[in-house]
Design a protein that fits this description.
- The structure is a homodimer of 362-residue chains.
- The first copy, chain A, is an alpha/beta fold.
- The first copy, chain A, folds into 2 domains: 121 residues, Aspartate Aminotransferase, domain 1 (Alpha-Beta Complex), CATH 3.90.1150; 213 residues, Type I PLP-dependent aspartate aminotransferase-like (Major domain) (Aspartate Aminotransferase, domain 2), CATH 3.40.640.10.
- In chain A, 39% of the residues lie in helices and 14% in strands.
- Chain A has a 7-stranded mixed beta sheet, sandwiched between helices. A 3-stranded antiparallel beta sheet of chain A has the order 9-10-12.
- In chain A, a hairpin with a 6-residue loop joins strand 9 and strand 10.
- In chain A, helix 2 runs antiparallel to helix 10 and helix 4 crosses helix 5.
- Chains A and B meet through helix 1, helix 2, helix 4, helix 9 and helix 10 of A and helix 1, helix 2, helix 4, helix 9 and helix 10 of B.
Chain lengths: 362, 362
């Protein structure tokens, strides 16, 4: 007999991107920041007194919450800290979705949403992004359209902004309109927002059905400490607090995240470098005949001239460069490349030049 | 309108024990270890290269899993690492309990189980421990009894061993028999097992429906890093892996837990000290006329001579000593005292002497 719930028994589980040993590997597959965290983190680690680790952490990460609130011009009651923004997503699913209810998201977008829905035993409706540019379907903000009606009863709609793996941004006006007509929670996953020229924060004061999540994993170069946070109304945060694990964020991570948040100057420099490298990489690949979507993130989604992304993916892999490949009718024509250091991207470009010389030149 | 699920909307949420600032407070309320973690943790913290924190952690904490497997004579596939053992409990609830199904536990035991059941929108049957000694009801291992029939269809039964807040141990023979007749998962929460003279590990090879959870929070003095683990059959661990968050344990905690596990000598000394202090405290309180349950844990459950535990709790609080008080018809006659350092327990005993002189002597 099976002890597991049927939905768990039959599911496959989420496959995180490969985390290989780094010796001689150029790792451009899981959208980590190529630069180390703020120098303040070096000092902070040294200052930790191991004796404090015998005690439980602050259950709601209050020092960090206060700091986040101050920085983003909300109040502490608007902030929930999580064990990575994946924890925030899990808390949201468990807060708003009963079994056999419905969630929704775009496709392609972050592949964890359908996995979380499956764990919760809820349906998830996937709205396809349209055309060559994976653009957001206009009918979705038309209440009378069949497309909108297909998600009308969903309790939560997950929107990655900038989107992954496309790197593109749903327009704020579109998002604003969607928040007005949609009756459930709009979960705006802003893991990559710092790499974009705008974000959805201005909508937070306008709509009571918005949750915005952020993370220290990308722009702050701290994927290893697992800290993310949600910003939402006090009412929503209070409810989600009841669902989170009591001590969901450990003492060291609360402290390091708090230190990283202080170093605004370092964050700016880091972002400027990555955005610069993103432009260089996008321009060069377009010169080589790639289709490159207009990225607002720390990765690009690029399709080689012959559309055979799997072949390019494997070629790069055999040359010790790991990028991400998502099989599928449409995504399978693209590879997703995390923006690395300039040195790493130079090596990538040289390797792609060789590939093109070998396979694509006539 | 409410965005939340009805079960979430109406629940109160778990209240963790108070985490006050430590200045001049003697904190004996949340069963933390009074001694600092292994000296190896001091060196380990210094060795961490912050540059590695830009990368995601190993998703399944494999180095730590391997080490745990080696130490407890199981294979790596028998081990799941969690963000504290609360994470293990949450994963189990989400793996084995569908909405409107049934879970079960003893009462009093760890008060988080009913909260997790409520979040999952499942019923939880609470089997009362019996009599003055809070003993485990014999009928529960009799398949034909009404008591057993009341939990016959439960999908998971949570057993804290040693139990909290009583500190007492369910007998291994009793547990063995229960695992044989019960058709669901028996979750044996061994957060305090290192303070006991035996544990349920020998049952793991005998029954395929057992999950044993452990933690670094108590015996290893590392509540602040949030690391716990489960041991179970490969089949159970595989299924629970699908439900856990992808990167549920951060890089620093994986590393520190792994270092702590190596220092067997320090663990032994630490345990010996706490068990010694536990005996001293229990003996002295019994001399004062307290009823003290026979603890196998790092805390004791003690009832003052007049049974007015709330009054004693408040008196201690006003003298900067925090212990735990659980209101209720039966638990309300007791206070739970975490075993502190000898110095802390001496101060506690002096304060209790004053209390008895003031209120209980005629």
């Amino acid at each position: 007999m099976s002890y597991f719930r049927k939905n768990i028994e039959k599911m496959e589980g989420y496959t995180p991107g490969e985390q290989p040993a780094l010796n001689s590997i150029i790792k451009l597959n899981t959208n980590e920041n190529p630069y180390p965290p703020s120098p303040g983190i070096y000092d902070a680690l040294k200052k930790i007194d191991p004796a404090v680790l015998r005690l439980y952490p602050n259950p709601s990460s209050d020092l960090l919450r206060n700091k986040i609130a101050g920085k983003f011009d909300v109040i502490t009651d608007n902030v929930l800290v999580g064990n990575g923004s994946d924890d925030i997503l899990t808390i949201a699913v468990r807060s708003f979705l009963s079994e056999n209810e419905k969630a929704a998201c775009f496709t392609p977008s972050y592949s964890l949403y359908p996995v979380l829905a499956q764990i919760q035993n809820t349906e998830i409706v996937k709205i396809p992004l349209e055309g060559k540019d994976f653009s957001f379907p206009a009918e979705l903000v038309d209440k009378t359209s069949d497309l909108y009606k297909s998600i009308n009863t969903a309790k939560i709609f997950f929107i990655t902004r900038p989107n992954a793996p496309t790197g593109t941004n749903i327009k704020l006006e579109y998002l604003d309109k969607f928040c007005t007509i949609f009756k459930g929670i709009v979960f705006i996953d802003e893991a990559y927002a710092d790499f974009s020229d705008n974000n959805a924060l201005p909508l937070l004061k306008k709509h009571d059905n918005i949750i915005i999540s952020r993370t220290f994993s990308k722009s702050y170069s701290l994927a290893g400490i697992r800290v993310g946070w949600a910003m939402a109304s006090k009412y929503i945060i209070n409810g989600m607090m009841k669902v989170k694990d009591s001590y969901n964020v450990n003492t060291v991570s609360q402290y390091l995240a708090s230190e990283a948040l202080d170093d605004t100057e370092y964050l700016k420099e880091n972002l400027a470098k990555i955005i610069g490298t993103r432009k260089k990489l996008s321009d060069k690949l377009r010169n080589y005949g790639f289709k490159v979507l207009d990225s607002r993130s720390n990765f690009i989604f690029a399709s080689p001239p012959d559309g055979n992304a799997e072949k390019l993916f494997k070629y790069l892999r055999s040359n010790n460069i790991i990028v991400r490949y998502f099989p599928g009718e449409r995504t399978g024509k693209y590879i997703r490349i995390t923006i690395g250091t300039d040195r790493e991207i130079d090596i990538l470009l040289k390797t792609i030049t060789k590939y093109i010389d070998k396979y694509e030149k006539v």
